[in-house]
UniProtKB/TrEMBL annotation:
GN (gene name): rsmA
Protein name: Ribosomal RNA small subunit methyltransferase A
UniProt entry keywords in alphabetical sequence: Cytoplasm, Methyltransferase, RNA-binding, rRNA processing, S-adenosyl-L-methionine, Transferase
Pfam families per record: RrnaAD
Family named by the database record: Belongs to the class I-like SAM-binding methyltransferase superfamily. rRNA adenine N(6)-methyltransferase family. RsmA subfamily.
EC number of the protein: 2.1.1.182
Length: 290
């Protein structure tokens, strides 16, 4: 474990009594619409930090610091931490709990829109955070679509979402295609509701993402265009879904599948990224592209 990067020993922010005291000080009440559930489990916190494998020269971008529970652990190890939260009361709380750490910058902003480069994040940066269900897929795709994505990211997400993103063959969704076309996904551990205050109604999981080399931007967009149309009919066979992607032209859709060597009787969730790419290539190259 690395030594402290400034400041005296901090209070244990996983202690519910400390959490409540900090929350009272800034008038923070957990808001369901923002997916606010604050981590109070030291073991989970330690596992997140370990999975991120921070080096002393790293910059870390944290999404949704809450009261700074993870922020402080990141700051003890990293060169610099930039923490962004949409809730001004969480910003105030994190500034209070991390006030003795000169390598922490806390800003109010929407992680889906904030210009990460404007913070001067160093090359080979890391990302971490407790991500609300409603923004998980768009946020992760945004991070890993960047020209300089985080070299590693560790996130707390809803267990159902983690299972979908890390799914093996046969259980893919459109979200799986979107994220796995830019990143590899590992599901590291599950987390019970009791690990949070207030306790959510669902279980969570810790996932780790690393950039995936593969499709260029144009090829990825072609894959997503075809997959999006097919998953609109996810319970039907690919004959129906790819016909939909082909503008309703069944003969053309079946021709795409034949060219890609994909059985029309399969369902969208059974395809992996390479197979979606073959269909997208066929869609671009065969005559009659809609």
């Amino acid at each position: 474990m690395s030594g402290s990067r400034g400041g005296a020993a901090a209070a244990d922010l996983t202690d519910p009594a400390t959490l409540q005291a900090v929350a009272r000080r800034v008038g923070l009440v957990a808001r369901h619409r923002l997916g606010q559930n604050f981590l109070i489990d030291r073991d989970v916190l330690d596992d997140i930090v370990a999975a991120l494998a921070i080096e002393a020269t790293d910059d870390v971008f944290e999404i949704g610091p809450g009261i700074g529970t993870l922020t402080g652990e990141l700051a003890r190890r990293a060169r610099r931490v930039v923490a962004v939260d949409l809730d001004e009361r969480c910003v105030a709380a994190t500034r209070i709990t991390q006030r003795d750490r000169p390598n922490v910058e806390v800003a109010q902003g929407d992680a889906l829109r904030v210009d990460i480069a404007s913070f001067g994040i160093g090359e080979g940066w890391l990302a971490a955070g407790n991500i609300p269900y409603s923004i998980t897929t768009p946020l992760l795709t945004r991070l890993y679509e960047m020209a300089d994505p985080p070299r590693r990211g560790v996130f707390l997400v809803q267990r159902e979402v983690a299972a979908r993103l890390a799914a093996g063959p046969g259980a893919w969704s459109l979200a799986t295609v979107a994220v796995r076309s830019v990143a590899t996904v590992e599901r590291l551990r599950d987390v019970t509701p009791a690990s949070f205050e207030p306790a959510p109604a669902v279980h969570s999981s810790v996932i780790r993402l690393t950039p995936a080399a593969g499709l260029d931007a144009a090829a990825r967009q072609s894959v997503l265009d075809v997959a999006r149309a097919a998953f609109q009919m996810r319970r039907k066979t690919l004959r129906h879904g790819i016909t939909h992607a082909a503008g309703g032209d069944e003969a053309l859709g079946v021709a795409w599948l034949r060219e890609a060597a994909i059985d029309p009787g399969r369902r969208p969730g059974t395809l992996d990224l390479a197979e979606w790419h073959r269909i997208a290539v066929a869609a671009r190259t065969l005559p009659g592209h809609p």
